[in-house]
């Protein structure tokens, strides 16, 4: 495949079967991320009585994967620019699968923390590459919807997680086996798309931006227009270009700041949902809490993603982000200031549910900031990686604060 300077056919194309295929392949990583995000709260509820986990250890289990995700995003995002998207696409799911399986075999809490670091490297590596591939293959008219649908695969993970957990908890199996199955199960969806990811063709936009061309065997070589001074060749070149370009740097700071604030609320809220729902009734069983979370995710979170995908190219990114963020702030504010709201079961659940709806509805904007109108193709994975790093730092802070406040 030769890098063409004319992408008009791709930009003007409608949605094809190939687009849906790429959306599913790319979205499976986000599905697994959401599954792990939910399931670790259930796992810790099962595990604490067995291993007598302290607060510090619990916070580390829940935050280590996200701290590692920051490193994984930087590493895989930059390597994707150096070697090509498809050259490493699939390696991150192997890292993730290995981490998930190893977590299920952990002999003690510190081994679990270490293996979740490996899992986090794979999770972080998926973010910049998957979203970039979908963006670069999409046409102008449907790019917003397709990129949103990639992220919306998280909704499926948030629903499947409590469904699988509830089914497993209701069995007579010992808790020591249940939690191991729950964490190891995350390897299956990752491995399911490994072969498909390895067989994807390189994106034409990357070939043009990197001065490369792809042969029939999928190998990349320098194209005739390759220029040593213009095309990035070292690990730090992409980051230097962002820092040296004030316009791109300001956009990156804005996108990263929005992601930091968003993830502080979203991930802290999701992983801590068993703790939040305990305010309704401390004597509820793990199964009852899991089913309550399933209802919230199915009734509020999943429709939020669907509405975002449907209206993304109609209302525009800015409108959706502003509406989502404002309504999130209102919902969290009501939960904070209404006296004894946790004792009013249905009002509490409705307000808490709407916080999820508008979280999913409004959180796509910072993540779809990588569109070509904002950042050139050669900078997309580093941009995505740096934003993911700030998001991971926000998540880690939220986890630690939720355990000690």
Description:
This protein has helices spanning 8-12, 17-51, 55-83, 85-88, 91-104, 109-137, 143-169, 175-184, 187-192, 194-198, 204-210, 237-244, 246-271, 273-277, 286-315, 317-337, 345-362, 364-367, 380-404; strands spanning 212-214, 220-222. With 405 residues, it is an all-alpha fold. The chain has a single domain (14-404), classed as MFS general substrate transporter like domains (Growth Hormone, Chain: A), CATH 1.20.1250. The protein has a two-stranded antiparallel ribbon. β1 and β2 form a beta hairpin. It is globular, with a radius of gyration of 21 Å.
- Enumerate how many helices there are, as a single number: 19
CATH topology, what is it called?
Growth Hormone, Chain: A
CATH homologous superfamily assignment: MFS general substrate transporter like domains
- In the CATH classification, which architecture applies? Up-down Bundle
How many domains in all?
1
Question: Percent of residues in beta strands?
Answer: under 5%
CA distance, first residue to last residue:
56 Å
What descriptive keywords fit this protein?
2 strands; 19 helices; Growth Hormone, Chain: A; 1% strand; mainly alpha; two-stranded antiparallel ribbon; 405 residues
Topology:
Elements lengths: L7 H5 L4 H35 L3 H29 L1 H4 L2 H14 L4 H29 L5 H27 L5 H10 L2 H6 L1 H5 L5 H7 L1 E3 L5 E3 L14 H8 L1 H26 L1 H5 L8 H30 L1 H21 L7 H18 L1 H4 L12 H25 L1
Antiparallel strand pairs: 1-2
Helix pairs in contact: 2-6, 2-7, 2-8, 3-6, 3-19, 5-6, 5-8, 6-7, 6-19, 7-15, 13-19, 15-16, 15-17, 16-17
């Amino acid at each position: 495949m030769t890098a063409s300077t004319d992408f008009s056919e791709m930009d003007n194309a409608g949605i094809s079967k190939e687009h849906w295929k790429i959306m599913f392949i790319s979205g499976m990583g986000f599905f697994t991320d959401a599954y792990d995000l939910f399931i670790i709260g259930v796992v810790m509820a099962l595990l604490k009585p067995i291993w007598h986990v302290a607060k510090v250890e619990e916070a580390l289990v829940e935050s280590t994967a996200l701290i590692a995700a920051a490193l994984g995003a930087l590493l895989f995002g930059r390597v994707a620019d150096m070697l090509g998207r498809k050259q490493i696409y699939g390696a991150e799911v192997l890292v993730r699968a290995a981490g998930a399986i190893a977590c299920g075999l952990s002999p003690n809490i510190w081994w679990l923390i270490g293996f979740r670091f490996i899992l986090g490297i794979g999770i972080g590596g998926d973010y910049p590459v998957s979203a970039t591939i979908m963006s670069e293959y999409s046409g102008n008219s449907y790019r917003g919807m397709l990129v949103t649908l990639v992220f919306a695969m998280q909704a499926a993970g948030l629903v499947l997680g409590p469904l699988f957990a509830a089914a497993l908890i209701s069995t007579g199996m010992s808790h020591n086996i249940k939690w191991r199955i729950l964490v190891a199960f995350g390897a299956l969806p990752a491995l399911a798309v490994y072969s498909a990811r390895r067989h994807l063709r390189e994106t034409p936009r990357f070939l043009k931006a990197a001065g490369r061309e792809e042969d029939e065997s999928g190998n990349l070589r320098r194209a005739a227009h390759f220029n040593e001074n213009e095309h990035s060749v070292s690990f730090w070149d992409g980051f230097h270009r962002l820092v040296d370009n004030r316009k791109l740097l300001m956009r990156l700071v804005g996108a990263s700041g929005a992601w930091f604030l968003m993830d502080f609320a979203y991930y802290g809220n999701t992983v801590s949902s068993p703790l939040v729902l305990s305010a309704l009734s401390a004597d509820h069983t793990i199964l009852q809490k899991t089913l309550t979370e399933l209802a919230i995710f199915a009734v509020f979170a999943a429709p939020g993603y669907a509405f975002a995908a449907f209206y993304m190219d109609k209302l525009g990114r800015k409108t959706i982000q502003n509406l989502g963020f404002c309504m999130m702030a209102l919902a969290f504010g009501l939960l904070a200031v209404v006296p004894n709201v946790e004792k009013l079961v249905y009002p509490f659940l409705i307000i808490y549910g709407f916080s999820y709806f508008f979280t999913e509805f409004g959180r796509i904007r910072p993540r779809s900031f990588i569109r070509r109108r904002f950042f050139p193709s050669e900078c997309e994975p580093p941009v995505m990686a740096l934003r993911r790093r700030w998001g991971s730092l926000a998540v880690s802070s939220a986890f630690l604060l939720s355990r000690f406040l």
